[in-house]
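Hey, can you fold this?
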Amino acid sequence: MAPTLPMPWVNGANASYITHFADTAVDSLKAIFNRKPRGVGIELTPEKVNLAQLRKQGTSLKLETLASVEIGEGIYEEGQILDTAAMADAIQTVLTESKVKVKQATTAIPGRAIAKIIPVPAELDDAELREMVLNQEASLYLPFPREEADVDYQKLGYFVDEDGIEKVKVLLVGVRKDITDPYIEVFQQAGLALNVLETSSFALIRTIREQLRQFTPQEAAAVVDIEFENTEISIVVDGVPHFSRTVPTGTFQIQSALSRAMNLPPSRNTDLLQGMTVPVQTMDTVGAMQVGGGTNPGTTAMLRVLGELSDELRRSIDFYLNQEEDMEVAQLLLAGPGASIGNWTSSWPSG
């Protein structure tokens, strides 16, 4: 199964939830379609660099190129680029091997973003709104100093509060500069200009935005992106993320548990998990998986990790529902390389 790539350019200029960080390095999303040369989407992960190139075909998009190159340990760990030179070399390698010649790229940062929906006065003009959100409200809502973050926002819609005052909801997003700056540096070293730098969870949400909008305003969807080192959990209402959390468990942890149980040498290659099917398990009253009885040690080890991840998902959903009255999480949507494991959903909470 091909790796799941963040594709921030899906829906082009009609995309509503775009986070553009580092203004000096990031251009308009429209540039991908309206200017030449064409851009390319590049995903940086702890185990490989993935490249995807799209082209317009009528009113739709078609995947033209998909390529990957593996990277070694110590280059990218726990959501941060540790060796920018080595990562830049990997980008140049995947460009050369795929015979793609471009000068612009789009990329996304997995996790590490703080997203808040905040109310602000409706009478503010665009300049006043920008000043208030980026320089006043951001300082109140971010868990780190404003000067240490790249911040952006998106207006969502108007509402009347309990005092009868009209306000506008704004989606505020912030990422620490020690996360974004290495991304900018890597692409500069690779000879590419960044069109868009955003979070992978937002890119994924926009990619499936129309499916997410099929639910009612009282129904939320949990989007679970199972990546290499982490799983990103986003709870989305009407295409807008209302809650997000990153859990430090992904396919690498599942692979490692399997290898230890089967006395296999440790490996960063998780291809073995692709196409595997885990047995359907029963759930106890709190959602923990039953892992005993009849399964081999490797399967039991895998199921134990899945059970822990299932518990984390349940806690995230419960936390969100405790903050929101009259809401329900109507569906779970799985993405990322971990979603290809057969019967994966047997380990997730139901109801």
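Oh, and this one too while you're at it.
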Amino acid sequence: MDNLFSDIERYKRNVNAPLAVRMRPQTLEGYVGQAQAVGEGSWLRRAIEHDTLSSVILYGPAGTGKTTLARIIANTTHAEFVEVSAITGTVKDLRREIEAAESRLLSTGRRTILFVDEIHRFNRSQQDALLHAVEDRTVILVGATTENPYFEVNSALISRSRVVELQPLDDGSVRTLVRRALDDPHGLAGAFSLSDEALDTIVSLAGGDGRAALTSLELASQMADPSDATSEHPVTITVDHVLEANPRRGLPYDKSGDMHYDVISAFIKSMRGSDPDATLYWLARMIDAGEDPKFIARRIMVHASEDVGNADPQALLVAEAAFRSAEVIGYPECRINLAQAALYVCLAPKSNAAEAGIDAALAEVRSGPRREVPSYLRDRHRPGSDSYGSYLYPHDYAAGWVDQRYLPEGLVRGTFYHVSPRGWEAWREESIGRERGSSCDNTGKASPPNG
């Protein structure tokens, strides 16, 4: 039960809390952004307003309002709201809360909402401990995660919950948060004003992260000189204060999370699309975040074969050299080697004939019938090989080629390999056509070897 001392303690905690915490709204009316998830008429909004929430997992990047929504639920529900840390919590802690929830439900009929922030940090045994309680509605789970729950959360828990995805805040929502914090009594209480350029900079640096925007505002306010303030003229926070408070912009990038895969995917697709500027941008995002240079080089190597292939065989050698540089040189110098290799494969003519060809051949091998090696192609170092058909040795022919079946019966040339009309690959196909045409008029004598 709250008393005078608990009120005093709450006040002291709030006074010393970061601006982003002090500005956390207590109701849906004060919640900013996420109209698609919690706007008028949405399932989540109706569930919160009518206190009929069922288990839900809130999924989205940092600073998009997941914890704020959980606090709003805590303030509006008539159910008991309890929280377990996914970082320090144990299976024992979960079982204790579940037992208390069951006792509460049986004795008073009161429901329990269990909030687990960063639920993806729970291991499988901890997530399994929640399963029956969620299934029986002994507890209503509210999980929050920055990682894709379909990969990181037990599929059984997912099937018993509703996943609500939150998006990075749009610039207008971030501006609303910042302007509100300037005037709110729990925020900067009108002691500061903010230049338009400074506001634009805060919004740009935040990158859709509301918490980051409020933290930038708070730090920038600490850089301003309070002695310049008067009752009529508050201290102005300038763009210089904002930049001083943010000496280095850190864009979101988690080397084990969704952002990691999104950025590398954008990098690969930019090389495939032959866009050098986009290739350099996504490469810079990875380098700036400290991504393993060998990981980047490996992806360039894969791309060199998958999307360039024999349209430019040199691409694979350049990519391999970049990987070697990542091994022996490392950052910061190997950034140049990575950029050179990435730009080479980006600008190279494209062909996916190697990837498409081997995948088609593998599909045939795995699902097609067993096909025998033609007798004249078999190894001749065995008894009975004298009965094999005659192998035509290409070097015995003027063009270095002779018309001969190499595929097993039932397959025809062109089944797997489809040459691209670009680069070395196209040139060789054209040259081979000319060579084979000339061989029809200038043939030599076959000489089957014993190999």
